[in-house]
Design goal:
The structure holds two protein chains of two kinds.
Chain A lengths: L23 E4 L9 H11 L10 E6 L3 E6 L10 H5 L7 E4 L4 E4 L11 H5 L6 E3 L3 E5 L5 E2 L2 E2 L2 H5 L5 E4 L12 H9 L14 H4 L7
Antiparallel strand pairs in A: 1-10, 2-3, 4-5, 6-7, 8-9
Chain B lengths: L6 E6 L4 E6 L1 H7 L2 H12 L13 E4 L11 E6 L6 E6 L3 H7 L6 E4 L6 E6 L2 E6 L8 H12 L9 E4 L2 H4 L7 E3 L3 E3 L4 H7 L2 E7 L9 H14 L1 H10 L3 H8 L21 H8 L17 E3 L7 E3 L3 H4 L11 H14 L3 H16 L18 H12 L4 H5 L2 H8 L10 E2 L2 E2 L9 H9 L13 H8 L6 H8 L2 H13 L5 H21 L4 H4 L5 H4 L2 E2 L5 E2 L3 H14 L10 H6 L6 H9 L1
Parallel strand pairs in B: 1-6, 7-12
Antiparallel strand pairs in B: 1-2, 3-4, 3-6, 4-5, 7-8, 9-10, 9-12, 10-11, 13-14, 15-16, 17-18
Helix pairs in contact in B: 1-2, 2-18, 2-21, 7-20, 12-14, 18-21, 19-20, 21-26
The chains are: A alpha+beta, B alpha+beta.
Chain lengths: 212, 596
């Protein structure tokens, strides 16, 4: 299976070229419908099983109060902004950017796992995930790179094109936003609804005499 | 690889004890969800039990394929609305989370708590917790409160919730169960049973993988559906499931003015293109489904304040032109209020429109209605009446009994305007435009049309717990349901079913729930009927064509359909059929019930 746009003709259906240099997965939260296909594709590609918790891209679901899902995935930050790598207590860092492969790499054998968790705590978006005891090391997006070829499975499967594989056009770390903040941002669209309600009940409208 | 096993979480609410039971053998025979629910009802609930008593069960069923073609959770209990087999489906994310927590055969509640509680599930940690602080809150408020309470880190954001609102707490017979705000197991009083057990909510979070036999095959099928179902996705992600309504109005299969009319120009106010372009805020999907047919609205222009919600045929059809509601702004407010109270929109709309017609005809007065001027389309009056129903105040206490019990308690002469079958309101559907709909509506052993459309395969679909909307397209892609389901059962469980075994599985599921309803007093030839109006009053469609049902034709078609299901001419099952399907354990009770 190829890119969802592949072999499609017509306006708006052109095939997007994948980046050759630095690339990252850009998430459109507004388009995310929370189906979880990306998580299935990711855990299948890396481990051959279906387990959302092993996916390097994660969907978090909020009640805004309308339900809304947002994605969370590593944005392959530039060196200066790479907080996870800076926070790693090991030398050389277990979690680091591979300049040749052009994606984040985790030396699984050396990672201290949840006993440490410094990279997760340092990442403003809480992106590195651990799945102890079987996978007790930082799970971070590697763009599905194999033998130098990068082909992100989540991007290819996303049914709503809410994930795009792009060269950076804005500094990547600007997309590194905590899921709570993503949700709160989308929630602004529902202003002025309260946090836990979607309606002003008629008794409030009519001041107790609610039979208009 | 070890054989796939299925675990059922059992919660005894009387003693606040929980245990896990291996039900793998039952799952092989009944799969899960609706069908396993029938088996549990048969085994666990004594004949004639009070649906709101300690003896009833409440089962949240999932199945081998939950989360792979939508994420349906099927809810089973004896219905307080019909006193027969009760069940309701909700989509969303709950079922998948239950499976991730390790309970891939669902969760079964027995007994009755002495105080309000909620169930907390995080993997192996299961606790019956105090819910005093949630009492009186709406379904959504309850979920938001729990979400805030249980959140320690970002991973806790994926706790999934279901809850009841005030109507469920107050034992209104058609109360609903709400999940994720707009997913509802609304039908047949499942929320009422939950209320009777004083179970306010369930919170579940799971972190264990589902452990499928052949995940590669599953992913291949998911991708195939994704690509070959492109057309279906395009239609449904735009308009969701309000899209069927306008077509139904034109086909005279959608009710207008409590079924008094075949057309009214108001029908054109419910044009899903307007809903999409004016009010749709974003798309949303159930777990494992790429369609995103949830198209929530946000209406800012309503004079009573901004309002959000989700409109579907199910919750909107019974209002709309059936209650002469003037367009989406009014409709949006009304449906959101129904959810706020925790009522089944489809059923309560039938109760309210029945009263509207009685009020129009002078059979009930403003005084009878506690001062409410219940004219057609009067949303303020409808809301006032709904509130009385949800809190069982005044006239609301009678109407909260639903259409099986309420008509007998009101004035003589009003009964014939109650559009009901087996106590369930016939709201959105108008059978005079479709004999098939008429039969679906009349013949269901569970008392509501959604439960029977596409029978007998429908029952097994709800047992696999796959989305009923998607199925038509998936069936097209794979030839038929078996063309998809049988290979997927092999991929998920490693189990193989021959064509004969599959056929038996389908028919076993179909017959068992009929047997249960028969045991509880359902007599097909007496109960599989329709209100007289559909045979006696001719209505006209937009273009003036007359529509009416022919009674003889109805009876003839009903008989044909009984026979096609392997039933006898009178709709009862033969002992031989039941024995052949492995349902020999039902024979004695069924024969005893039919002898009465």
């Amino acid at each position: 299976m190829g890119h969802p746009n592949q072999n499609q003709e017509g306006w708006g259906q052109e095939k997007l070229e994948y980046p050759e240099g630095v690339g990252y997965i850009s998430a459109r939260w507004d388009l995310c419908v929370g189906c979880g296909h990306c998580e299935v594709a990711c855990s299948m590609y890396h481990y051959g099983i279906i387990n959302r918790e092993l996916s390097r891209i994660r969907i978090f679901r909020y009640l805004l109060p309308l339900p809304k899902s947002v994605q969370n995935v590593c944005s392959q930050c530039s060196e200066e902004e790479r907080e996870c790598q800076k926070a790693c207590p090991e030398d050389p860092p277990v979690i680091h950017y591979d300049e040749e492969l052009k994606h984040m790499v985790v030396d699984e054998d050396r990672c201290l796992g949840t006993d440490c968790g410094e990279c997760r705590d340092a990442c403003p978006a809480d992106i590195p995930r651990f799945y102890p005891p079987s996978h007790n090391f930082a799970l971070v997006c590697d763009l599905c790179e194999k033998k130098g070829r990068r082909r992100p499975q989540c991007v290819e499967i996303c049914p709503t094109q809410a994930l795009e594989y792009l060269s950076p056009h804005i500094p990547q770390h600007l997309e590194r936003i905590h899921p709570d903040e993503k949700a709160a941002s989308i929630g602004l669209r529902l202003h002025p609804l309260p946090k836990d309600g979607v309606i002003r009940p008629p008794e409030e409208v009519f001041g107790g005499e609610d039979n208009a | 690889m070890p054989e796939k096993t299925f675990k059922l979480l059992e919660v005894d609410l009387t003693n606040k004890k929980t245990r896990t039971v291996d039900v793998t053998e039952d799952v092989k025979k009944f799969l899960g969800g609706r069908s396993l629910g029938s088996k549990l009802l048969w085994d666990r609930v004594p004949p004639g039990a009070d649906p709101l008593g300690e003896d009833n069960i409440l089962y949240f069923g999932v199945g081998p394929m939950t989360g792979l073609l939508g994420s349906v959770t099927n809810v089973t209990a004896k219905s307080p609305l019909t006193m027969l087999r009760g069940q309701s489906n909700m989509n969303g994310h709950f079922g998948t989370e239950l499976i991730y927590a390790g309970y891939n055969a669902g969760v079964l509640f027995t007994g009755k708590s002495d105080r309000p509680v909620y169930l907390y599930i995080k993997d192996d940690r299961v606790e019956v917790r105090d819910a005093a602080h949630l009492t009186g809150k709406s379904g959504l408020e309850t979920q938001v409160t729990l979400s805030d309470e249980l959140k320690e880190g970002v991973d806790d954001q994926n706790f999934r919730f279901l809850s009841i609102g005030s109507a469920g707490e107050n034992l209104v017979r058609n109360a609903d169960i709400c999940h994720d705000f707009y997913h509802h197991a609304a039908r047949l009083g499942m929320g009422t049973v939950m209320g009777s057990k004083r179970l306010k909510a369930i919170a579940v979070r799971g972190t264990q993988g589902p452990d499928y036999a052949h995940p590669g095959k599953i992913l291949r099928n998911m991708k195939r559906i994704l690509h070959e179902g492109r057309q279906y996705r395009a239609e449904n992600r735009r308009w969701g499931h309000t899209k069927s309504m306008s077509g139904r109005y034109y086909a005279t299969t959608e009710g207008i003015k409590n079924k008094q009319k075949g057309w009214d120009d108001m029908a054109d106010l419910f044009n899903p293109v307007l809903l999409e372009q004016r009010y749709k805020i974003w798309g949303d999907s159930c777990h494992g489904c790429p369609v995103a047919c949830k198209v929530p609205y946000f209406i800012t222009g309503h004079p009573w304040g901004p309002v959000a919600g989700e409109l579907r045929h199910d919750n909107a059809g019974g209002w709309s032109a059936n209650a002469m509601i003037a367009g989406y702004e009014q409709q949006g407010y009304l449906c959101s209020y129904v959810d706020y109270l925790g009522l089944d929109s489809e059923d309560v709309s039938g109760v309210v429109t029945w009263m509207m017609e009685c009020y129009e005809k002078g059979l009930v007065t403003q005084e009878d209605l506690d001062g409410i001027d219940l004219t057609w389309g009067n949303v303020g009056a409808i809301c006032a009446l709904l509130k009385k129903i949800a809190y069982r105040e005044g006239i609301g206490d009678t109407l909260a009994e639903g259409l099986r019990f309420a008509p007998a308690k009101t004035k003589t002469g009003s009964e014939k305007f109650a559009m009901t079958g087996k106590g369930v309101a016939i709201t959105s559907y108008e059978p005079r435009g479709s004999m098939k709909d008429a039969l679906d509506l009349a013949m269901t052993a569970v008392g509501e049309i959604h439960g029977d459309r596409g029978a007998p395969e429908r029952m097994i679909l709800d047992s696999l717990t796959n989305c009923a909307f998607w199925r038509r397209y998936v069936n097209k892609i794979f030839g038929d349901l078996a063309g998809w389901a049988v290979p997927m059962l092999e991929a998920t469980c490693g189990w193989q079913y021959s064509p004969k075994e599959w056929e038996d599985l389908v028919m076993r599921s179909f017959h068992l729930e009929r047997c249960y309803s028969i045991r509880e007093g359902y007599l097909p030839s007496r109960d599989d009927v329709m209100p007289e109006r559909f045979f006696e009053e001719t209505i006209h469609n937009k273009y003036g064509e007359p529509k009416i049902l022919d009674h003889d034709e109805f009876l003839e078609k009903r008989k044909e359909r009984y026979l096609s299901y392997g039933l006898r001419e009178d709709g009862t099952p033969s002992a031989d059929t039941l024995e052949d399907l492995g349902l020999g354990f039902t024979v004695e009770a069924v024969e005893e019930a039919l002898d009465k």
